[in-house]
Amino acid sequence: MDWNHIPKIELHCHLDGSVRPETIIELAKKKEIKIPSYNLDEIKEKLIAPEECDSLDEYLKRFDLPLKVMQDSESINRITFELLEDAVFENVKYIEIRFAPVLHTNGGLSQEEAIKAVEEGILKAEKYFNIEANIIVCCMKHLSEDEAIKTIKAAKNSNCKKVKAIDLAGGEDEGFADKFINAMDYAYKAGFHITIHAGEAAGWKNVIDSIKKLHAERIGHGVRIIKNKDAMDYVKENNIMLEICPTSNVQTKAVENIESHPIKKIIDYGIPVSLNTDNRTVSNTSVGKEISLCSEVFDMNTIDFLKIYLDSVKYSFAEESTKEKLISIIEKNYPEALKYR
Question: What sequence ranges are listed for the domain Adenosine deaminase (predicted)?
Answer without folding.
Answer: 7-332
